[in-house]
Amino acid sequence: MYKKLVTFLVFSLYAPLAAFSADDPSRARLYMPVSTGVSFSDCTTCGGKASGYAARYVFGFGLGLGVASSKLALTGWPTSSTSANTIDFSVDTGPMMDIGYTFGSDFTFTLGLGVGSSPSSDKSLPGEATYKIEGKSASNTFLGLGYNFGSIEILLALRTIHTTFDESFTMSLLGMEFPYLAETIYDWQTTDIGIGFTF
After folding, report:
1. Which of 19, 23, 69, 31 is nearest to 153 (CA)?
2. Is 100 within 8 Å of 113 (Cβ atoms)?
């Protein structure tokens, strides 16, 4: 029994060391969005542009850990379905913890996902003093390609971002006030380019 326990402990210590000493290099990567994809239903005046970053460390055995953040600036957003007035505002995911896996050595393929819990927005509605917007969750999925030129990597990634908010305000109808609460989802996609350093 004692021998089996010692063997298990030795192996459990050796396995991570063997993995970390793999022949493939470790990588430090940084991505920035260069284009934004966002769709609007029945809104011809709406537009959107994303900014942000993703930074990741990839261990030699392929596991990658990092952080990402994306901010979507929206323009021409209608204040209601019956109003011609529009507003500009932004939606920010806040920091999202990313986890991914990279396949390959010189030519690489990466996939992964990230989650966050602190999205925010500066959205406000004219004339609605009681309007509030509160972030609930943020997430993203990504697919990436890379090519290693010696110690430098050139990277390309497609990222899909999903955020959820609670919006509330008080409506007046026939001299009475009614609370309004709705869950709102903002989704967008980015094409990212990046650079990596292998060592």
Report:
1. 31
2. yes
Choose the CATH number for 24-198 among 2.60.300.12, 2.40.160.20, 3.40.50.1380, 3.40.50.1000.
2.40.160.20
Q: Where are the domains of the chain?
A: 24-198
| pLDDT reported for residue 84 | 75
Q: How far is CA 13 from CA 6, 23, 174, in A?
A: 11, 19, 71
- Distances, alpha carbon 47 to alpha carbons 40, 100, 195, in Å: 8, 31, 28
Give me the pLDDT at residue 128, please. Answer: 83
In the predicted model, what is the mean pLDDT of residues 167-182? 85
The strand ranges marked E within the chain are 27-37, 47-58, 63-78, 86-92, 96-103, 107-116, 120-121, 132-149, 152-173, 176-198
SS3 call for 4:
helix
User: In the 8-state DSSP scheme, what is residue 6?
Assistant: H
Q: Residue 151 has which token pair?
A: 């110690």
